[in-house]
């Protein structure tokens, strides 16, 4: 069954996306993570919005890295890469993002194993 469009959820997503962008600019990394989680929850509950969640998972990975949480950063980058690969199956636009995440993952692997 197809989920119907939900204007309220879309408006919530736009507000959260804008707040996340502002938090990134202001280097409020805890907020970047919190807003990212909320965006992912909206996507889980309303798939019809077609939110490209790997973008926000990648932002969360960067925020975790800035906060010194290497393991969480690594996990976010791996998840974002895997999700981008799924998107790439229908649109090759995401290859650049996948390549960047691959490099970040390789860098973090050595730090995690220490």
Sum this structure up briefly.
The protein is an all-alpha fold. The chain has five helices and no strands.
Structure notes:
- The chain is mostly helical and 114 residues long.
- Helices cover 76% and strands 0% of the residues.
- It has helices at 7-25, 29-45, 53-66, 70-88, 95-112.
- It starts with 6 loop residues before the first helix and ends with a helix.
- The mean pLDDT is 88.
Low-pLDDT residue spans: none
Largest sheet: number of strands, sense, barrel closure:
none
Could you estimate the helical fraction of the residues in percent? over 70%
* Total helical elements: 5
Strand content: under 5%
Give Rg in angstroms: 15 Å
Quaternary structure of the protein: single chain
Order of helices and strands: HHHHH
Anisotropy-based shape: globular
- Average pLDDT value? 88
Distance between the termini: 48 Å
Structural class: mainly alpha
Strand segment tally: 0
Question: What order do the helices and strands come in, and which of them pair?
Answer:
Blueprint: H1 7-25, H2 29-45, H3 53-66, H4 70-88, H5 95-112
Helix pairs in contact: 1-2, 2-3, 3-4, 4-5
């Amino acid at each position: 069954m197809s989920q119907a469009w939900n204007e309220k959820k879309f408006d919530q997503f736009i507000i959260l996306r804008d707040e996340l962008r502002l938090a990134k600019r202001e280097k409020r990394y805890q907020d970047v993570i919190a807003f990212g989680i909320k965006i992912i929850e909206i996507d889980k509950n309303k798939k019809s919005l077609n939110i490209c969640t790997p973008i926000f998972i990648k932002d969360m990975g960067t925020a975790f890295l800035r906060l010194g949480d290497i393991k969480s950063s690594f996990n976010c980058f791996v998840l974002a890469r895997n999700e981008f690969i799924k998107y790439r199956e229908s649109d090759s636009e995401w290859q650049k993002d996948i390549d960047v995440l691959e490099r970040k993952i390789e860098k973090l692997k050595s730090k995690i194993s220490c």
